[in-house]
Amino acid sequence: MDRKRSAAAAGQAWQIYSETLQPDAPGLWTRVRAVPRMLKAVLRGQYKGMSFGTLGLLALGLVYIISPIDAVPDVIPIAGIVDDTGLALWLAAVLVKSAGDFVTWERGGRPTVIVGEPVD
């Protein structure tokens, strides 16, 4: 990941953090605690605010960060760490943003599906 992308990821992370400071928005700690519930709801098919594709990209990103195999090796002084840092910021930003949407969805009441004929 080059410096422009890393800076963009940092800017996006800051923007999402600033969103958590809004008076009516869920706070950062509320969002962090909601991540496991959100992941369970996505996997069970209860929450449609995050697709399986996004969930898969998050999992691949986590594997990339943990894996010793990198596109830019960590032995290269700065660039090796910048790509992992940028990806970690992206992962955190997506999770925090999605968790905020999930908390808002939870607070608004979960829509239920009733099987049967539509009524006008």
TrEMBL record:
Chain ranges passing through the membrane: 47-69
Keywords: Membrane, Transmembrane, Transmembrane helix
Domain DUF1232: 55-90
Pfam families: DUF1232 (PF06803)
Matches recorded under InterPro entries: DUF1232 (IPR010652)
Coiled-coil residue spans: none
Record flagged with keyword Isomerase: no
Cell compartment(s), UniProt: Endomembrane system
Lipid bilayer topology: Multi-pass membrane protein
Protein name as annotated: YkvA family protein
Organism listed in the record: Actinomadura monticuli
